[in-house]
Amino acid sequence: MKKDFSKISFLSLFLLFSVAPQLIQARKNNSQMLTVKSTTFETNNTKMRRGINIGNALEAPNEGDWGVVIKDEYFKIIREAGFDTVRIPIRWSNHAGSVPPYKIDDNFFKRVDWVVNKSLEQGLITIINIHHYEEIMQKPEGHEDRFLALWKQISEHYRNYPDTLYFELLNEPNGALTSDIWNKFIEEAVSIIRETNPTRKIIIGPADWNSVYKLKELKVPEGDKNIIVTFHFYTPFEFTHQGAEWVSPSPPVGKKWIGNEAEQKQITDELDIAVRWATEHNNISLFMGEFGAYSKADMASRVRWTYFVAREAEKRNIAWAYWEFCSGFGAYDPVKNEWREDLLNALIPPPNKYYVSVDTEHGSILGSGWYNEGSYATIKISETSLGFLVQDVFDHFEGLGSRDIVIDARTVKVYVNGPRIIRAVWRKDYTMALLTTLGVGIILGVAILLYKMQRFSLLSVDFRNATLHSSLVLFSLHTFLRLGSLKLKQQR
Ligand code: BGC
């Protein structure tokens, strides 16, 4: 009791210096849902909806250079997980002559055939593209003929393949390959492909790394019903690419994605740019050919972001392909030979299951994960205070609803009626800092007093011993109070 009283008085002093909490005015999102109406995705009753990129394999300088060699079983694993589409990035430019006729290496073609066949055998819509043709981004005109020669050979080679094989002209045009030049290349490449593949689906995307903001500059070949438009989605880039070694400067790690209103709006606004553009262009089919968050971001944020982006795309009839299968963004763990369950669930949600997670600055959380709708998730925070002089003390859980049940100061039962995110609120506790300051003040005061008394010969004491003793007394008092407060917290 006594201790509590002293704490209260110290704390009330401290309140004078505390900062008033900021009120965040949540912005209301009144935007209406936009959707693309087109159904041209359908091929032989197969619908492109949910896909995955087998990245870092055939678009590496040589397959295996970036740690991924495509295995036969991957396609079955992918189909059985619920995907209907696979996008296979391919660096043809490394396996073709540099002078006319720019012949593609026969062995490389054989390897791609094997991969494409395995994928088609599993009934997957299979997209092949030209990926990492870096030279064309620097000197587009110098590579125009070669680019077209590549498509002439690829399209002739696959002319008799099922219509579930799709062609994507070029991954992420950027640099000197501006919209004007790119539009011309699109027209030329599409007309070459149409000589041998009159109705095959061809995917084209805007300049500036397939940015939605460049859709307005994209020219879609007229009168062709089998064109799909792609864009890539990595917003916010500081989150999805944190710690990415291939980005300079690399965004710092530690950025979370909680899914608050502002974060959600940033995503839906961008998706709506694509949908608005598509509705102005005959409801052309949209394909979000890459989206994903790098493994340096925390898993809970990746799951929340991936789930949100995928669901928002689906609501708008946008087909998608996650970046990527088993490498740095991987939804599949190639060492354990198993899916990273949380990410897979975010992409292909199990029926009636939702992700419950907690955003906390400190400590660890027990109980976050996927739960059945209508059940309760028991969430417990492991630590309740951290630090020495200024302590971070767990205060309460925020974001609870009327059906949630508080069990004790660190445990709550969360009712699962959709994706749930609970926030653990921590506050600063200055009690120890105050006690220590006070103790040091008293020691100094006593020392000065003793010193003065000794100086004026009022007292004859061993000054150093006295200071030492009083320090020891105060230190013991401090430790006693600290232990007492810890015990109290544990009991709560
Ligand atoms: C690139 C990859 C990269 C990914 C995410 C892809 O288009 O080809 O190398 O990892 O985007 O940045």
Give keywords.
492 residues, alpha/beta, TIM Barrel, eight-stranded parallel barrel, five-stranded mixed sheet, disordered N terminus, binds beta-D-glucopyranose
Secondary structure layout plus pairing:
Layout: H1 2-15, E1 50-53, H2 73-81, E2 85-88, H3 106-121, E3 125-129, H4 134-138, H5 140-157, E4 165-168, H6 179-196, E5 202-204, H7 207-210, E6 227-233, H8 237-240, H9 261-279, E7 286-291, H10 299-315, E8 319-322, E9 332-333, E10 338-339, H11 341-347, E11 353-359, E12 365-366, E13 369-372, E14 376-381, E15 385-386, E16 391-398, E17 405-408, E18 411-415, E19 420-429, H12 431-455, H13 463-491
Parallel strand pairs: 1-2, 1-8, 2-3, 3-4, 4-5, 5-6, 6-7, 7-8, 11-19
Antiparallel strand pairs: 9-10, 11-13, 12-14, 14-18, 15-16, 16-19, 17-18
Helix pairs in contact: 5-6, 9-10, 10-11, 12-13
Describe the 3D structure:
The protein has an eight-stranded parallel β-barrel with strand order 1-2-3-4-5-6-7-8, surrounded by four helices. A five-stranded mixed β-sheet has the order 13-11-19-16-15. It has a four-stranded antiparallel β-sheet with strand order 12-14-18-17, with no helix packed on it. The chain is an alpha/beta fold. The protein is elongated. It has three domains: about 300 residues, Glycosidases (TIM Barrel, Alpha-Beta Barrel); about 70 residues, no CATH class; about 60 residues. About 40% of the residues lie in helices and about 20% in strands.
